[in-house]
Amino acid sequence: MFKTILLCIVLISFSKGDDSTLQLNRVVTEHINNKGERKPIIVKRDIDPICKNIHISNEVIWQGNYANSKVPEACKSTFVTCAGQTIFPMQLHKKIETYGEVEVMEFIKQMQESESMLLIDTRAGKWYTYRTIPGAINIYYKYIMKPHIFQDDYEASMDMLGVIGNKKPFDFYKAKTILLFCNGAWCSQSPKMVKSLLALGYPPEKIKWYRGGMEDWLGLSMSTTNKYKARL
């Protein structure tokens, strides 16, 4: 089953205090590809100029398969909605914050000035290489979930996370604040990695989760490491 939606122009913001609103429209970050090459990327909404002149109404957005036939193709996004066996709740753990797109951008912004923060794509390497959120590193969730199978990758991953020690009890004093994501609210990979990290003793207050993942990120036309937009 495929769904076509209109990508509306929405001003992303969040409140800061009672009288002011902080607008976070773009963040500059650096992405390292699988060849070790560094590339500066601006994280923002990549809206086709033609989409900015659409008059928004119920008829335009919701008619037929969610988008009126007169809406330009560049302003619609097509994606698969049948993947995944479950939908995860908004909160995985009472001490783990669930993030939306604005919070992810703020995290990326703060990450530029702090080596104690990591944005982590928990999917397999081929998914990460094809397209991911700029600034993210790749730690495949199975590396943490199955250390007996992926011993070298497990140890390298724990080192990247700032965890000290070879077995329980680990030293999490220098453990990094991490933000995990995978393909969407139906994707079990980041929740499984969260569960595995908690079992190891990783402090839940140092774990953040982007529930929407790549599906929501692309649905809002956010910048990725691959600007190609598949048309089915």
From TrEMBL:
Residues 113-226 form the Rhodanese domain. PROSITE patterns: RHODANESE_3 (PS50206). InterPro entries: Rhodanese-like_dom, Rhodanese-like_dom_sf. SMART domains: RHOD (SM00450). Pfam families: Rhodanese. This is Rhodanese-like domain-containing protein. It comes from Sulfurovum xiamenensis. The lineage of its organism: Bacteria, Pseudomonadati, Campylobacterota, Epsilonproteobacteria, Campylobacterales.
